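Appendix C reproduces, verbatim, an entry submitted by the partner laboratory led by Prof. M.T., so that reviewers can inspect both the input and the predicted structure.
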Amino acid sequence: MTDNYERDSRLVKRVSLTGAAINLTLAVVKATGGFLFHSHALLADAVDSTSDLFTDAVTIAAIRFSRRPVDHNHPYGHGRFESLASLVVALVLFIAAVILVRNAVLHLMGEPGPAIGWPAALIAGVSVVTKEWLFRWTRAAAQKTHSPALLSNAYHHRSDAFSSITVVIGVTGAVLIPGAWFLDSVASLAVSGFIVSMGIRIAVRAVHELTDMEQNPELVAEIEVLALTVSEVQDAHRIRTRRYGSLIYVDLDIEVSPEMTVQQGHDVAHRVKDLILERYDYVADALIHLEPTGSRQGGEGPVRGAAD
């Protein structure tokens, strides 16, 4: 798994750095175009692209920390840095949305400004295509590496693509419809809505990871089937998973014959563990508890803190 882990780390870094370079270019082009062609919506989009640079930096730093090896103080590794980074990304999105709403409302309350130039819509159109491509590439890399921080960044790119579509519509309307200058600011408000929606989605996912919410019900079902392929295993249950960055830890109980020796039971547990780790390269470890056959019917033992 070490070779795959290092390969994934290189991929995550390459994707993040490429995204940062593209975001920097888009932010400069949008800001320049917004000023030159008098588009508040395009300036709002530039603010969003600028926030991407910060989240790119957060993602790169988080992944660097999260992929440090296990140590004495962090026996489960440093993977939670990725989930924390996702929360930071969500916070940045919320702040950017507040700034955009404020500016758009102030513009709507003021007097009409200079006429908006049609190149503003063209710049936003280029942004749509670029950010949608970047979203698809980043999401594919996140799914391959199982990186929650990179996945959060991918959906940040998607929010940019949607917001740029709104800018295209708003700016085009303001240019083509006489007296519809306000559509540019309305588009800016719509951009803010997309940003908030994406921020909520990212924050909820990060909170689920930090609170050890069950990660993948399909994985749980697959592990049960896999454990039962070992002939000595009579039953597999109480399977739980929790995420630490790009890795998942698994706990499960297996039932074996009560006539087995300790050594025999130990060997069976190791065979189950080896099967799980060989099948899933994103599973860091599997903690297996041995029980005599029939324990499941007798009821699970109490879990401290569980509801009665």
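The beta strands are 235-244, 247-256, 283-292. Additional entries are available on request from the coordinating office.
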